[in-house]
């Protein structure tokens, strides 16, 4: 393990004590959290306020300043989910010094320490200035909250695999390797492993800028690798210490994984960049839009929007070199017509809009509410900041509408509904921070009079509960039992809560898990201790290569969740078959998205025993609509003309034992069956009704000495048969 200057801050204590507020924060960064790349003190970033002088105040629709300030990039350090998660992570990471002396002999660590990993991306200005310790963010300045992921950070980034990037970092901190598969030098793009130019020149994608500051043209700023800097997130602690290094294939890489391997190789947290890198978009040129499959070319979808990026520099009419491909920037910084600077009257038609918009529509409202309560980290928001954030929410809603398409058609059996969701993004649908984020399909069925006769995927707006009878696109992260055993063996408290009931009481503990009553893997939201992806049913992007996806740890989980197409890539759409209730004349089919779930908000509230960030987040959630779902796509299905109900059931056999078992011959065209039980042979009185999808049923709720009479009827969308 790399040497590190450890200092004890709070001594040894018992973790998870709720009667007192314990401080979990490290004065220095634990060695297992250290990473390569630029280090604190290597560069001093300028405030975004300085950039506003030339790049703001003239056009909210196109200028860089206003659109950036409304983005989650600008507000990365204010994000209340971020702070609630960091505080739980600080609790989780090092409960006492014995733990890390056993895992890493010869060290004497502080309490906490993982916060530095999070702050590196959410406040690069503060991190480079050395204000990320203590690791709970206590030393951060007000300017850090206003900077977020700042203009100067992005415009001074250097490709770590370039000769210049290699020269800017000391030999023991260089974030690149020679890939053994290709023999090529490959940068470590992810986990905040940035290389920052210590000079003040600003870098950008144009070679003809007439800026009033030093400027350097940079093709790196037109590549998705730059965005990968913070959008492939890995946990070096799990990467170095967990039995499987947090990999899908279970291979352990050993200590110092962050210095030996690229971030995609270990400690899976978030893989947006690798999802894109494994896809067909990485090499697809925007000029080739017409050659895309038809189901990707919908007007208004993300690929179509990105195709409007011109192939040439609008100022010089020279072709871009290299040609523009579908990158993160083509979708998340689309071209607009306008001025890049208020000091330069030139109008460009290929000006990248600096909104960096994703799909987060709820967190800005939560931040605005917390600001009004005086509880927002970083202080009260100004009205211009609020205006910019709400404009960012508007753009996010538009982006969500471009991310997927939905179709509904009659299934092959003629009586069911096939719903197809197609991924129009350059990464998985959906992507980004995995905890709590989800999308699902809702179907509402109506009869010929417009009355609701059924619903799947129902979301209860009053309770924020989602029914479990639908396809949900999400990630289920968790922990393996062997890793839990390691944690307990070195001193982790067996009473540590892993999951909670809805009322906040502890559901399962680390000790229960270790004792083997919960299986070999358990879903949890303790992201800094998690080392396994239990399930990932998100839709792969177009052209995702299974081999590249395996190398980058972005396979679906299970790996066969999506079939491989004849061209050797994963299917980029999902087909769902849903039953249609009898009497349905039409169905409204809708794809919804939610920024975070009730379950995740509840976890962050109950798991936090040291600060108020979890409770503050919960109150913001309650008072802003509980992260209301956003409509992404919708369509209507009309039932085909109905030929009538099925033929009656024949060959009914009834066998009595401890109960009654019934079986009959399957009926062509039936989608299900109803079993009616009566107490009289004339079938008078209210029957007990049971349903079955197969030509058999069992009835156990019976009494000796009582006669029972049964009818069975076949059903389909037109109704039910005669008995």
Question: Tell me, what's the shape?
Answer: globular
> What structural class do you assign from the helix and strand content?
alpha+beta
Radius of gyration: 28 Å
Distance between the termini: 75 Å
Strand content: 15-25%
Low-confidence stretches: 1-23
Number of strands: 30
Number of H/I helices: 22
Please give the largest β-sheet.
5 strands, antiparallel
Average pLDDT level: 90
Q: Residue share in helices?
A: 10-25%
List keywords for this structure.
723 residues, Immunoglobulin-like, 22 helices, 30 strands, globular, disordered N terminus
Structural account:
With 723 residues, this protein is α+β, with helices and mostly antiparallel strands. Helix 3 packs across helix 21 (598-607), helix 16 (363-372) crosses helix 22 (613-622) and helix 21 (598-607) runs antiparallel to helix 22 (613-622).
Task: Summarize this structure briefly.
Helices cover 23% and strands 20% of the residues. It is an alpha+beta fold. Among the domains are: 1-6 and 22-150, no CATH class; 653-720, Sandwich (Immunoglobulin-like).
